[in-house]
Amino acid sequence: MTGADGTAAGSPATPGTSYVVRVAEEATDREACFRVRKDVFVGEQGVPEDIEYDAYDAGALHVLAVREDGVPLGTGRLLHGEAAAAKTGGDPTVGSLGRLAVTREARGLGVGAALVGAIERAAHARGLAAVDLHAQTHALGFYERLGYAAYGPEFPDAGIPHRAMRKAL
After folding, report:
1. Prediction pTM value
2. Facing residues of 21 across strands?
3. pLDDT of res. 95
4. Which residues contact 137 (CB under 8 A, 6 or more apart)?
5. Distance between CA atoms of 116 and 81, rounded to whole angstroms?
6. What is the pLDDT of residues 47-101, one digit of tens each?
7. Strand partners, 156
8. What is the C-alpha to C-alpha distance for residues 133 and 148, in angstroms, rounded to an integer?
9. What is the CB neighbour count within 10 angstroms for residue 98?
């Protein structure tokens, strides 16, 4: 999850940028997660802010990728228990990965795969047997390379085409 360093504070993320992925337990980390989501989903993709944040955020496990100088690079969340079951067809053994977002400057550096890996490890530690997600259709190949398989028809979410995907853990 970390690359070779050599990035000065304030410089853009480049190949070799060092970063860590951690559970966002502190309020400042959760705020950083929400800033990344706002930049990517609201700013870049035009998702209305009032639907980007939902009641699931409070009980979700959030992960955050940050450069060594503290600059946030990406985030994602895991829903489990009743919250996940509401999104995964009622199966309490399936978690729900969502709100995966990587800043424009960090794309292509492995940050997204590192975030997914951290979420999968958290799901496994909670005894979950699989993880579901709703992928934007342009990202299907990314998730397929990580072992996810699409199922069901395409559907819109916030006006963006998506497909459901699942991976057994």
Report:
1. 0.89
2. 65
3. 97
4. 154, 161, 162, 163
5. 19
6. 999 999 999 999 999 999 999 999 999 999 999 998 898 888 889 999 999 999 9
7. 161
8. 9
9. 21
Strand partners, 20: 66
Q: Which is it for strands 94-102 and 149-157: parallel, antiparallel or unpaired?
A: unpaired
Sheet containing 149-157, strands listed edge to edge, beginning at the edge strand earlier in sequence: 19-23, 61-67, 72-79, 94-102, 130-136, 160-168, 149-157
User: Under a CB-based contact definition with an 8 Å cutoff, are residues 104 and 129 in contact?
Assistant: no
Helix (H) or strand (E) holding 145: helix 140-145
**What is the token pair recorded at 155?**
């559907």
pLDDT: is 78 or 4 the higher one? 78
CA dist., res. 112 & res. 75, Å (int): 8
Q: Which of 94, 104, 113 is nearest to 21 (CA)?
A: 113
Greatest alpha-carbon pair distance for the chain in Å reads 47
Contact at 8 Å (CB) between 150 and 139?
no
Q: Does domain 19-168 have CATH number 3.40.630.30?
A: yes
